[in-house]
User: Fold this.
Amino acid sequence: MVQPAKALPVDLLASQVDGETFTLPTGTRIFRQGEPVNAIYGLRKGIVELIDKSGERVCYRPGELFSYLDIVWRGGAFRMDALARTPVEVVKLGRLSFLNLLHNHPTLAVLLIAQQHRRLREQRSSGSYCY
Assistant:
């Protein structure tokens, strides 16, 4: 029996009525540290790099969501800059819509925890978040 493909978290964002998909060229700043957190982002294509004020870097790949920690923990502002390191296709979903999505699809929280777990394991094995 063939298993149906699992929907990625980015697919859940894109399926929302108010989800916005857009493409950006290499080098585009998606958001800046200190700007108000008003949305969560998912990556469909390309690589996005988040850089904190100390210069630490974290890269995100297709299928991954970024900025969700800023949304969920109510910091009020982005903690990092987000830059397109390659041409990217990004899905953006407003904060309230994302929180409603989590309420309606609680397994999304498990997928986000799994994403973070994979990221930590990769960092331990490679010594870096960016590839």
